[in-house]
Amino acid sequence: MKLLKSYPYFLANRAVFANTDLAVTDKYTGEVATHVAIADHDAIDAAIEAASKAAAPFALMPAYARKDILLHCVTRFKERYDELAYALCVEAGKPITASRGEVDRLIDTFQIAAEESVRMKGELQTLDISARAEGYRGMWKRVPIGACSFISPFNFPLNLAAHKIAPAIAVGCPFVMKPASRTPLGALIIGEILAETDLPKGAFSILPCARGDAAQFTEDDRLKLLSFTGSPDVGWELKAKAGKKKVVLELGGNAAVIVDADTNLEDAATRIVAGAFYQSGQSCIGVQRIIIHEKVYDELKVLLVQKTKALKTGNPHDEDTFVGPLIAQSEAIRLENWIEEAIEMGGVVLCGGARDGAMLAPTLLENVPRIAKICAEEAFGPVAVLSKFKTWYEALAAVNDSKFGLQAGVFTRDFYKIQQAWDELDVGGVVVGDVPSYRVDNMPYGGVKDSGLGREGIIFAMEDMTEIRNLIIRTPPEK
């Protein structure tokens, strides 16, 4: 299978072969794999104007028609399954088996959105709660918020784009999207399929662009919502510049997992290694901190090291590869420096640590101070740190000792400890009996603190993309 020589961007539902200015590389070989058109300031302005004009007709599109569009996408994703997986493997360096998994999630996300598009709910409300309100009744419904701006990241080019696009179509919101310049192909293939549908003119634009032209996606007042997934520094900066529009941020993390003494260690080790090193660790809910009860620390450490060393690294096109390259060599060098800093501060490398270009061997460390970057910041790579705890309170405090709060994993069979974790962990989600890396595409997903603002997940994103419109009816008194 091969990629096309070049790909257009999509402006107001239409493919535009404006140029071939963006080179997309194969992240494993480093060679240029294809070229993509880049939108300039005028193209972005035209897209926003088209989306603004499409807001009214899109809002009036009946629910069944929006459902049909989403189901068309599901059908076409299935037909282009291998192409989507291959493009993802090339542009992101994601192992082919994981790439197929992301295509599966793309299909799931659009299927869920299709089902929810015809379940938009309102409520009849009793207003006569006192004598002054006698003769009044109320009801409310949700209406589309208007034109939306989406900025998606490089690590899940299909699924994280889907979590913005699918709910927007489900509720009837036009959108402009800026995909990550390193991985634009997935979003553009989605655009090809959307262009086959009867969406109102201007309902979507998918525009790779230079960073200098991207300000319009954030600052233009014609856009009523900004949904950004990416780094915390960028996300909070964009929020400060977004003006009056609603802002949803899905940012970073340094997710922790607690392993209590009553845990099935073989099972926990298998799940933790998968959670730490899938996607080459490039996930905001990838396992970065492993907090283990002192009674089982040594035993679990041996298992974790054994399973980590057994992982196949290398060419992401090979069926048995689990860890591929990082998105860029600069990211591998950054992590290599963080590992060296941890060692200088007393940390010990249990396995891994070696770098070859953009490849970094899956790495486990211990005895690392919490202030080291590899603990305190988001690694976003195949590195995890082990530490011990004595009491459950100490373990919960260790999880919360972070500026991030996306998800946490808890391995314990004690129901009361589970309740306490749910009550006290300052995170957006607690996963019991598994790693924090677990996500199903219909669940509420998002974080607190520096990890973000708002929630993804289809019905929750649909709520963000709509506003409540109230109706009050007065029944005049009889003569």
Structural features, described:
The structure is a single chain. With 479 residues, the protein is α/β, with parallel strands linked by helices. The chain folds into 2 domains: 6-251 and 452-469, Aldehyde Dehydrogenase, Chain A, domain 1; 256-441, Aldehyde Dehydrogenase, Chain A, domain 2 (3-Layer(aba) Sandwich). Helices cover 38% and strands 22% of the residues. The chain is built from 15 helices and 25 strands. It has helices at 41-60, 63-79, 81-92, 96-116, 159-171, 185-194, 215-219, 232-241, 265-277, 297-309, 329-344, 373-376, 392-400, 415-424, 458-464, and strands at 6-7, 9-11, 14-16, 22-25, 32-36, 123-126, 136-144, 148-151, 175-178, 204-206, 225-229, 246-250, 256-259, 289-293, 348-351, 355-356, 359-360, 363-366, 383-389, 404-405, 407-411, 429-432, 448-449, 452-453, 466-474. The strands form 7 sheets. It has a 7-stranded mixed sheet, with helices on both faces. The protein has a 6-stranded mixed sheet with strand order 10-9-8-11-12-24, sandwiched between helices. Strands 1-5-4 form a 3-stranded mixed sheet, with no helix packed on it. A hairpin with a 2-residue loop joins strand 16 (355-356) and strand 17 (359-360). The longest helix has 21 residues, at 96-116. The chain is globular and about 85 Å long. The mean pLDDT is 97.
**What is the tally of beta strands?**
25
- Arithmetic mean pLDDT: 97
What is the CATH architecture descriptor of the largest domain?
3-Layer(aba) Sandwich
Widest sheet: strand order? Answer: 15-18-19-14-13-21-22
Q: Which CATH class of the largest domain applies here?
A: Alpha Beta
In what range is the share of β-strand residues? 15-25%
Uncertain residue ranges = none
Q: Could you say what the CATH topology of the largest domain is called? A: Aldehyde Dehydrogenase, Chain A, domain 1
Describe the global form.
Answer: globular
Q: Helicity level, as a percent range?
A: 25-40%
Radius of gyration: 24 Å
Distance between the termini: 79 Å
Count of distinct structural domains: 2
What is the CATH superfamily of the largest domain? Aldehyde Dehydrogenase, Chain A, domain 1
Structural class: alpha/beta
